[in-house]
Amino acid sequence: MNKQVLWMPHAGHFILGRNCGFRLNTYVNGFIVSTVGELRHSGDREDDPDRPLGAGKDSLYETMVFKAKKSRQKCCPYQQVDGTALDSTRYKTAEAATVGHHKLLAKWGRMKAAS
What is the distance in angstroms between the CA of the first residue and the CA of the last residue of the chain? Predict the structure, then answer.
């Protein structure tokens, strides 16, 4: 199967994604795989502890997968169809989040393209 992979320059999910220091957002074969982490709130200093994205102190990073559709935005030619996550995982470290992002890219790159 010939699949298209496209890296996009901003967070692909999470309402506070622009406040995350860690962002991976990738289109693959009709899906968006988005990973965010290292959430900072305004006024946080660089040496402040990271804030969890979800339940549990070890949920510092998360990856979610969404169906994609064409976008009119210049920066990113694809966006989420809706907010329904097809898959998700949380991580404690940036290294684990990076590996997890790539694993979900491989998994969803093998899926039938979203229609």
Answer: 16
